[in-house]
Amino acid sequence: MSTHADSKPWTVPALADAKRNGQKLVMLTAYDAGFARAFDANGVDLILIGDSLGMVVQGHDSTLPVTVADMVYHTRAVSRVLQRALLVADLPFGADATPERALEASLQLLQAGAEMVKIEGAGFKLDIIRHLVEREIPVCSHLGLTPQSVLRLGGYRVQGRGDAAQQLVDDAKAVVAAGASLLVLECVPSPVAARVTAAVSAPTIGIGAGPDCDGQVLVLHDFLGLDSGHRRPKFVKDFLAEGGSVAGAVQAYADAVRAGTFPDAEHAYAS
Ligand code: KIV
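A: This is the predicted complex of the input protein with 3-methyl-2-oxobutanoic acid.
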């Protein structure tokens, strides 16, 4: 099986090749140059500037207060040091409320060094995804638990259970048909994430979505075992404890993702 070379920078088309070749993708969030450099140097394939920064960096209770300016600031810091990893940045809450706002925010993020923007949800977001992709802006979709929906959902809970599973599969097909090149699945039962992964050509990246996704992502602070001040989700694993150093933690995480041993049953939702 041919796989993406360790020394070669990732590109958007290479992500689909990786899925076709069965090569698992290793993703972590980063918000500053120091961690981004360490992740890039130790073989992380994709770095996400997540709007999780609102909670883990800024200390808010949700991601809702994060602004486009915040995202641009962190995207600039991270993008300066990357040699190989592909850089994805979140469109924060409200920045994708209309096609015009989404385009303006995405242009700012791409000009700051992002190579793809991430958008939560399906529904009216399908038009937004199409609007951006038609204008040469690569899009990562985010389905399952979408933290920007916290007020409507009333909390952070597993999604896609029971009858909602088919809706999730349909939404995944729709976002990929609209042009999404990558799909994050958050807090979804493993069998449902496996169905989604089999149904779409774009790689799926799981966080609390079981071992059958095409790749995995963790939030930096969770990956390092830091207390975020919030309830610790079941899927979180402290890789610093296992690896002994930041470089060792990245290697332990990357090895486990590529071998398909993370997440195991303890770090996934069976149903
Ligand atoms: O904001 C973020 O860090 C994310 C991850 C949870 C995937 O969206």
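Residues 29, 48, 50-52, 90, 142, 184, 186, 207, 217, 219 surround 3-methyl-2-oxobutanoic acid (CB under 6 Å). DSSP finds twelve helices and eight strands in the chain.
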